Amino acid sequence: MTRVLTGGVFVTDSGTDELADLRQLAGDIGARSSEERIGHRGLPDDFDTVAWGHLQDAGLTRLTSDPESGGGPTESAVVLRALARYAVTVPLAETDVLAAWLAAKAGLAVPDEGPLTIAIGNTGTPTVSGVPYAGAASAVVVALRDGATLAVAVTEPTITDIGHNLGGEPRATIAVPADGFVTVDGAAEELTRRGAWARCIQALGALDAAVEFSVAHTRERVQFGRPLSAFQAVQHTLASMAGEVERARAATELAVAAVAVHGFDSVQADYAVTVAKVVLGRVVPTVVTAAHQLHGAIGVTLEHRLWLATMRARSWIDEFGDTAWHARRLGRMALAADDPWDFVVGGV
């Protein structure tokens, strides 16, 4: 079945949007989570067990890693973006796109239900830091890099330190198990690509929320007897934000399409995800700065929902390779291309 990009969504060749129901369902779960947790956010933010239960009951937690789910990368992208837009604190990307996939590739068993997470470090390290949602995970897939090779093990988390990223998502340091590792050749690059792909989609969802909040705030906030949105400078800022987000959306949807058609291990996905990571890395700081300028001091308080969108976006763009790392990678791809023009227009 062929999917083409029409009006910002993927539709089948018959013109029927098969993803409409999924988009609505994921949005409903996200909106419910956001409403129920107003005033209850903290640092670190707690894992949302209720939202995870809804996702699990709806069969949305293993869309790419379970062949029987009936889903794939396109469907996973819809759910990831919706949850990020509402700042739902669950490890969906870690569970489905990363941990379950890598465990299956290594031939290791993980629980069929419950959240998973992934811990990525280098061979020989006694601990791995920055592990997402380690305290909530039913199992951790540990991946230790040695060049393109990964040593992979599945373990229960032994947490030595608890923290969070800028957006309040829980991050922890865990001890590396002494044994139980399986060697997986050639998987390190795909693991990074999968993580970068997921973070681009999540960052896009967060940017959508930041623009939405900014539009609403400038319409409601009155200054000198007029709403802020009536001032030309504010209008220009909002228009610039929207344009930047659409640039990010185009790059991200190219990455989603490349993975859906060619797979995560393809050269097309490598190119598209790298481009998306570079574009998001440039767009996010611009949109985040503008959103906080429009909100003023209220936008940086824990009580306001803006920080959940902007700070998570800032955190996500630096994970699985920051902007500079992906920009250098894109430059090396361009230098190695047989036809530079084909490369520039995406003919890879």
TrEMBL record:
GO terms for cellular component: cytoplasm. Keywords: FAD, Flavoprotein, Oxidoreductase. GO terms for molecular function: acyl-CoA dehydrogenase activity; flavin adenine dinucleotide binding. The keyword Nucleotide-binding does not apply. InterPro entries: Acyl-CoA_dehydrogenase (IPR050741), AcylCo_DH-like_C (IPR036250), AcylCo_DH/oxidase_C (IPR009075), AcylCoA_DH/ox_N_sf (IPR037069). The keyword tRNA-binding does not apply. GO terms for biological process: fatty acid beta-oxidation using acyl-CoA dehydrogenase. It comes from the Bacteria. Residues 194-315 form the Acyl-CoA dehydrogenase/oxidase C-terminal domain. This is Acyl-CoA dehydrogenase. It comes from Mycolicibacterium rhodesiae (Mycobacterium rhodesiae).
